[in-house]
Amino acid sequence: MRLRPTARLPTPGWRWIVVVTGVALLGCLPALASSLPVSVQTIPARQLEQRILSTQQMSFAGYAESNATFGLPALPAFSSVTPLLDGVTRMRIWQASPSRWRVDTLTDAGENDTYQAGQNAYTWDSGEQLLTEILGPQPLRLPRAADLVPSALAIRLIQEAGPRARLSLLPPQRVAGQNAAGLAITPASPESTIARADIWAAQGTGLPLRVEVFGRDSVQPALETQFLQVAPWQPDQVVLTPRHGPGSGFTSSAPGSLAGALNSLDSEVLPGSLAGLARQPSPPGFKEIGVYGSGLAAFAVLTFRRDTGYQLLSDALSAGATPLTDQDGTGAVASAPLVNLILIHSSVSHETFLLVGLVSRSALERAAAAIAARPDQDYDHHQ
Fold first, then answer.
1. Which residues pair with 303 in a beta bridge?
2. How far is residue 211's CA from residue 275's CA, in Å, rounded to a whole number?
3. In 11-149, which ranges are continuous DSSP H helix?
4. Residue 199 and residue 226: Cα distance in Å, rounded?
5. How far apart are CA 28 and CA 163, in angstroms?
6. What is the CA radius of gyration of the chain?
7. Domain ranges of the chain
8. Which of 109, 172, 305, 322 is the most exposed place for a label (fewest CB within 10 A)?
9. pLDDT tens digits, 68-126
10. What rounded mean pLDDT belongs to the chain?
11. Of the candidates 235, 93, 220, 219, which has an alpha carbon nearest to the alpha carbon of residue 150?
């Protein structure tokens, strides 16, 4: 009688090798997918730009992550903005239209949800268990996670860059499991802090899937955001309707509060031009705020009452901003790859000015020196 060989069971050590190998292979799947050959139809850069812009009415749902390395000091007045500009932001997105969408920001401590419902917006804070309604359009607001959604950021970059920006094609990539065509946008103004913005859009739909924004003299993007998953979505009103359960709170506010960060604005009338850039019309309801330049080469000027200004300046210096000394005032400057910020207290007008925007540090310093030197009565009455 012939004996059949006995099957040997794997030893525990081999079992672990199989498990670890399997886990490692699963972890490599995204990288393997991105390395697959990519083939897209080549079209002119302007045509690709228009295809991207035409996706604004698309309905989709997905998951995205952004990574920013701005390195700005953590000012208490802007504590809600700092995490967006330094670190990873994880987002779940549902969009029915540009005026009806929901973005959940996920953290280890919980989540913060933003809803856009027509002209009104809602925010849900899971930590505070508070739903906040913001009534009416927001002509001016602080940055929020929804601004970092790849599709929203790409469209805004194209619109702000304007027709004078230089466009060129990039090698295609595979993003979120889809073949994506690449578009590079170079701002026309040499004063812009943005050297280039790269966008990859799905070949089939034109939906922007990945965005990288580069500062001057930098080989690494200061801001990158991409979808890891995204697909067409049939809008569901249950998902898009903000709700709060028993025991949670509800409050309502007006857009002018700017999340409480700019409550202490002074009513100084700002000059008609600074650093060679003309002042633009102020956002409705915010005549105290000056906006100079345009598009991707613009900055804002805000005037703060004395006590608030002193506190902001002290906070900035304590947070690591560089001291700034001018013959007409003292201040602090913070530079990041894409954003420059200056706080200057004028010894002439005794006001404190915040200048922040997408222009070079030298341009912002020229503007700060000019505004610090001017007494109140010499300001142009610009409406």
1. 353
2. 30
3. 12-34, 45-53, 82-85
4. 10
5. 41
6. 25
7. 45-256, 264-378
8. 109
9. 987 666 666 566 666 677 789 999 999 999 999 999 999 888 889 999 999 999 999 99
10. 84
11. 93
Walk across the sheet containing 277-280 and list its strands.
273-274, 277-280, 290-294, 297-304, 352-357, 340-346, 329-335, 322-326
CATH architecture, domain 45-256: Clam (2.50)
What is the pLDDT at residue 35? 47
CB neighbourhood size of 181 (10 A): 25
Residue 311's contacts (CB-CB under 8 Å, 6 or more residues apart) are: none
Strands (E) across 126-262 are located at: 130-134, 166-175, 178-186, 194-202, 208-215, 223-232, 249-253
* CATH node for 264-378: 3.40.1000
Catalogue the E-assigned strands of 216-328.
223-232, 249-253, 273-274, 277-280, 290-294, 297-304, 322-326
Which structure tokens are listed for 166?
């230089």
Contact between 65 and 84 (Cβ < 8 Å) = no
CATH fold match for the domains 45-256 and 264-378: no
What whole-number distance in Å separates Cα of residue 363 and Cα of residue 78? 23
Do β-strands 223-232 and 60-69 pair in parallel, antiparallel, or remain unpaired? antiparallel
